[in-house]
Amino acid sequence: MADYTLNIAHLYGDLMNTYGDYGNIIALKYYAKQIGVQVNVELVSLNDDFDGHAYDFVLFGGGQDYEETIVAHDLKNKAGQIKDYIENNGPLLAVCGGFQLLGHYMEMADGSKVDGIGVMDHYTTNMTADEVQTLKGQRLTGDITIKNDETGETYHGFENHQGRTFLGKGERALGQVTKGQGNNGMDQSEGVIYHNVYGSYFHGPIFTRNGNLAKRVLATALSRKYPDIDWQNKLADVSAESF
Amino acid sequence: MTIKSTLAKFSAKSSHWFLRDILHRGGTSLPGKLAVAIDPDILHKLSNDFDLVIVTGTNGKTLTTALITRVLEAGGYSVITNPSGSNMIQGITGTLLTTPIKPSPNGKKPVAVLEVDEANVERIAQAIPPKMFVLTNIFRDQLDRYGEIYTTYLKIVAGIRKTPDAVVLTNADSPIFARGNFNNHRIFYGFDNVAPVDYQDIKAPNNTDGILSPTDNSVLHYNFITYANLGKYFSVTDNFVRPQLDYRVTSVDQLNPKFSEFSIDNTPLRIEIGGLYNIYNALAAYAVGREFGVKPSDIKTAFESNAQIFGRQESIQVKDKDVTILLIKNPVGTNSVIDMMMTDPEPFSLITLLNANYADGIDTSWIWDAEFENLHNAKLTALATGGQRYQDITVRLKMADFNIEGTYPDLSKITEAITKMPTKKVYIAATYTAMLQLREQLRAQGYIKEEF
Ligand SMILES: [Zn+2]
């Protein structure tokens, strides 16, 4: 039996599951197993209560437009608890649609506007919006590389999104784009970091291709739950998949 | 036929003759392109020559089309059909113009059975009002090209709405087909092989698309699931349930990688191909056959005497290895291939080849939605990887807790990979362009003789 456990909530995992986002959980399990940590995963979906105290990590993935509008509606009922979780430094990875819905609003490809829950300060227009000056009217699709200047880490992935996200107050980019387009194709930002929330447009998924980031987030989550143990040190010898 | 369309038909035939004789290949879209350039109404002018059956959906179009063709032929119809892959407007026009239509031996109108790409359904239906649509399933394909499942379905519905007299023969087990604002007569086929006492109350696994109720968008529950989002579904928030079935699989008696035995409406049947998902194709063909008045005994004969139409799972001898090549392209298809391997009673090895060219889908993230973990429940002995994106597939399988015995980015070493495997039976699961490269290598090394 493992001595330590990590409880993961997969937010709307049955509806927001379009681009292999679940792979991020597979990657966390893979690294956790090597340091004797047992990972439990629970689905939190439509009409379910989200109790942030029960979880050490949350994954909120992307979905198809149709499902996203259904999720956006239900998400309002969970907004307060998600905000508490985030403000209490709960670790969360939000990808694509999940990233967008934590902000103020998003615009679908057809121009319809969907409210986010505004627990973070970014917003998302669609690819034809007035403020879009780069690759207007086109999806941002292709290989992408970014660099996080604070840690010096480089992340590789694949982006495939029509929405253009603009970061707001207190939000830093996950990295600066060195190849590809990123959040909006204009300001070189990709993704977001806010408290312990990581947001990204990366498919791949991001934790499977970037073991350095997976280990960093895993250490953050475990240190928050078990502060007396040096998790960074424990993970130092685990080799990170990176390509 | 007007002079213009006669000319168009003649021109298509000439170019087809030219291509067939000079380039040794059929099924090209060039004759169709020439004909459409001369007379855009050419398809419409053909529409009195035959009854049209349009087969569309994400997976299973090709085999379903081939099975329907054999079934109708067994019932005495003269049938024309399009070669696999030629399922867009140009290719279809070419097929219709260059295939001679003979009178049916049974005296009824000949039938054109056409596999049609989802996005081309409306144009084809508009040109030639079909007698019947056959809908197989809609799953997520490569999203970088095809868009979302509900959008895809709306494209099909647009064609259905234009032709209110067409019968819509539908896979009842797919909840998305319960949607659609059209009043066409619907006929439903599905699985009914589970006794009500064995019904469960389950939900589809997390990676499943298209599980929302059409009434109120609640997540559907199932009494049983056959695969992916297919099964006997019901809503827990209202009275919405799977439609009543007109044609049903009443038992599944034997499943293994080489053949399946089952019964439809209590008629025992056998097809020479593995995989539960292929039983759906047989069921659709059975239903079409019955709707066209073909006797169950003739359908049975059609299934059992045409083993070569199941050629998709190709077996090749490489030295002492018995190699089966399987195409993978999306999560549902890959899960089906994995399910099929789980029915193999013999120990086997697996080589998985991943490319990310346009024809494969340039986004490889779908491999994380396929449940490779289930291979722990199969008689899998050894695993190797390869292809341009070997790193992605290697890490995928590593994180699924498998040891990777070898990695072959360069497919010129593929026979070495095959012969190194410890088992006699070797599966190679490959994306589209990886499969083409693999076949090219095997041909260069003399293990495949024919041109394809
Ligand atoms: Zn995305």
TrEMBL record, chain A:
UniProt KW keywords: Cell shape, Cell wall biogenesis/degradation, Glutamine amidotransferase, Hydrolase, Ligase, Peptidoglycan synthesis
GO molecular function terms attached to this record: carbon-nitrogen ligase activity on lipid II
Classification via PROSITE patterns: GATASE_COBBQ (PS51274)
Listed EC numbers: 6.3.5.13, 3.5.1.2
Reactions performed catalytically: L-glutamine + H2O = L-glutamate + NH4(+); beta-D-GlcNAc-(1->4)-Mur2Ac(oyl-L-Ala-gamma-D-Glu-L-Lys-D-Ala-D-Ala)-di-trans,octa-cis-undecaprenyl diphosphate + L-glutamine + ATP + H2O = beta-D-GlcNAc-(1->4)-Mur2Ac(oyl-L-Ala-D-isoglutaminyl-L-Lys-D-Ala-D-Ala)-di-trans,octa-cis-undecaprenyl diphosphate + L-glutamate + ADP + phosphate + H(+)
Residue ranges occupied by any CobB/CobQ-like glutamine amidotransferase domain in the UniProt entry: 7-210
Pathway: Cell wall biogenesis; peptidoglycan biosynthesis
Catalytic center residues: C96 (nucleophile), H203
Superkingdom of the organism of origin: Bacteria
Matching InterPro entries: Class_I_gatase-like, CobQ_GATase1, GATase_3, Lipid_II_synth_GatD
Binding site for substrate: R139
Gene3D superfamilies found in the cross-reference section: 3.40.50.880
Assembly behavior: Forms a heterodimer with MurT.
Functional note: The lipid II isoglutaminyl synthase complex catalyzes the formation of alpha-D-isoglutamine in the cell wall lipid II stem peptide. The GatD subunit catalyzes the hydrolysis of glutamine to glutamate and ammonia. The resulting ammonia molecule is channeled to the active site of MurT.
Homology family: Belongs to the CobB/CobQ family. GatD subfamily.
Protein name stated in the entry: Lipid II isoglutaminyl synthase (glutamine-hydrolyzing) subunit GatD
Lineage of the species this protein comes from: Bacteria, Bacillati, Bacillota, Bacilli, Lactobacillales
UniProtKB/TrEMBL annotation, chain B:
Cross-referenced InterPro entries: Lipid_II_synth_MurT, Mur-like_cat_sf, Mur_ligase_cen, MurT_C
Pfam families referenced in this protein's UniProt entry, alphabetically: Mur_ligase_M, MurT_C
Reaction(s) catalysed (UniProt annotation): beta-D-GlcNAc-(1->4)-Mur2Ac(oyl-L-Ala-gamma-D-O-P-Glu-L-Lys-D-Ala-D-Ala)-di-trans,octa-cis-undecaprenyl diphosphate + NH4(+) = beta-D-GlcNAc-(1->4)-Mur2Ac(oyl-L-Ala-D-isoglutaminyl-L-Lys-D-Ala-D-Ala)-di-trans,octa-cis-undecaprenyl diphosphate + phosphate + H(+); beta-D-GlcNAc-(1->4)-Mur2Ac(oyl-L-Ala-gamma-D-Glu-L-Lys-D-Ala-D-Ala)-di-trans,octa-cis-undecaprenyl diphosphate + L-glutamine + ATP + H2O = beta-D-GlcNAc-(1->4)-Mur2Ac(oyl-L-Ala-D-isoglutaminyl-L-Lys-D-Ala-D-Ala)-di-trans,octa-cis-undecaprenyl diphosphate + L-glutamate + ADP + phosphate + H(+); beta-D-GlcNAc-(1->4)-Mur2Ac(oyl-L-Ala-gamma-D-Glu-L-Lys-D-Ala-D-Ala)-di-trans,octa-cis-undecaprenyl diphosphate + ATP = beta-D-GlcNAc-(1->4)-Mur2Ac(oyl-L-Ala-gamma-D-O-P-Glu-L-Lys-D-Ala-D-Ala)-di-trans,octa-cis-undecaprenyl diphosphate + ADP
Keyword Transmembrane: no
Enzyme's top EC category: ligase
Mur ligase central domain ranges (all copies): 55-288
PANTHER family: LIPID II ISOGLUTAMINYL SYNTHASE (GLUTAMINE-HYDROLYZING) SUBUNIT MURT, MUR LIGASE FAMILY MEMBER
Function text: The lipid II isoglutaminyl synthase complex catalyzes the formation of alpha-D-isoglutamine in the cell wall lipid II stem peptide. The MurT subunit catalyzes the ATP-dependent amidation of D-glutamate residue of lipid II, converting it to an isoglutamine residue.
Oligomer status and interactors: Forms a heterodimer with GatD.
Protein name: Lipid II isoglutaminyl synthase (glutamine-hydrolyzing) subunit MurT
